[in-house]
Every structure is written in C-alpha cells, then in structure tokens.
# Entry
Amino acid sequence: MATSLQTSTPQTPSAPFQPKLLLRLGELLIWIFLVGMALIEFAPISWIFATSLRAPSESFNLPPDFWPTSFRWDNYLAVIQSPQINFLLFFWNSLKIALLATLAQLLTCSMAGFSFARLRYPGRDTLFFVFLSSLMVPATVIMIPTFILIRSINLLDSHWALILPATTSAFGVFLLRQAFMGLPSELTDAARIDGANYWRIYWQIALPLVGPALSALGIFTFLAAWNNFLGPVLYLRSWDNYTFPIAIVMLNGYMGSGNRAHVLAAVMISIFPVLLFFLLAQRFVIRGIAVTGLKG
# Structure
C-alpha cells in the first residue's frame, strides 16, 4: 500500500513588528515639532535683534528680515549715551528693585511654605487654602487698594512702593510648600531626635534640598519685577527713581516718533540680564516645576 507524502506548503511569516522603529519615528516627529515651535517663538526676538542693528529707515522692510543686513553697533552706544534718559541710573534702579524683591520673596515664601508643609498647628490647612484662594483675585482688583495703602504710609515716589508688594506671593508659597512636602519626613524626624529646632531644620536641612524650586521661583519673580511697567507708572514721580521699562517708552517718543532702531536696541539690552540668568539656571527651572507634582 503506497503512502502518499503530503507536503505542507510553507507559510510566509508575517512581517515582524518593530517597536523600536516606531519609537524612533515618534521621537523624530516630536523633535521636528519642537524645533518648529522654537523657531516660531524665536522669530520675534530675531527680528528685534536684527532691526536694532539697522538704520532707522530699514526698520519696517517687507518682507521682514530676521537676520541683520547691517551691523550698526553704534545704536547700542547711542542708547547708553542718550541725552533723553540716564541709562545707567534707570538700569540700576530696575536691577535693584528686581534683586531685592526676589530675595525677599524667596525668604518669605520659603518660610511660609515650610510652615504649611512641616509644622503642625490648628487651622493650618484652612489657612493655607484661604491664602491660596488669593490666586483667584485678579491683580487689577487690588490695584486701587494697594495704591491707597502705599500712599497712606508715605511710600509714593520711592522704590519701596514697588518692592514691598512683591515681597511675597501665593504662587511662591504654593510652589515651595509642594517642594518641602516632597522631602522625606525621616530627615525632619532625625534632625528633631538630634535636638535641632525647626529653624535649624528649615535653614540647614530643608532649604538646601529645595534649591530647584527656589531657582524657579527666583527667576519668575525677577522676570516679573524686571519687566514691571504699570507699577513704576503708578507709584514713581521723580526722574531719579524711574526704571528701565519707562526708559524704553521715553526712547519711543510721542506717538512712536522715536528712533526705532534705538528703541529695539534698548529692548535687547533689557532682555540680556534675564536671558543670561535663565540660561544659567534653566535645568533648575525645569526640575523646580516638576517638584510641584511629586506630593501633596
């Protein structure tokens, strides 16, 4: 009896799934998207820088040039030596106000944040949520009461009128409270066992460990104080107390009749301090923002 050999038809294996290739493709698309968004964000700064180096007659060329067609660095020198403004004085006024407001806010917000995160006392959580509810109040609502208060204590036309309202913020307290809550409780317990009081725990143990959150808050505060224009307009009266944002408006002239290249050169000068500080501390900024989502 003859047996027939049945030959099975070989099946073609399906194409293997390649997750690594899809992952690489996804990363490439994300990278292209982020680069495109970065170019869009950088375009206005590029135009400001390019225009600050041109002649005033070339300020509004169409289509706009995002790369300098000429390099007239004397525009920057003209801003520094401008007879309209006392550049060094206005620059120093803004720097002094921004630094003092930043240091004060770092101190007050870190102390309040440590209190809400680590100390135990009746009504702590209720007080924190009441304090946090101030974030829902628009700044324009408290503008008139703040002006009346500043006037009643005779601080009009002084830099303290700009520094004192910026010495603390609900956002800063929230940011640092979350950072302190993210620290292991064993550190505080071990320090208490060793005899350290709460002030020493705050200053020597907890505060150095929340450096990223402090850096983030410091940059946000410095940027807000440096770019503050409405505050100086409301509170300052004398020439010697004016800040750098007011100097830029002075250079712009009535109805924008000023030298456009000089105005944009002043804008670029105002960008440099904040940009340099941010570039040095950007990794701490990113980590500091991430701290707020760890716990609490």
Notes: The radius of gyration is 28 Å. Residues 1-5, 292-296 have pLDDT under 50 and may be disordered.
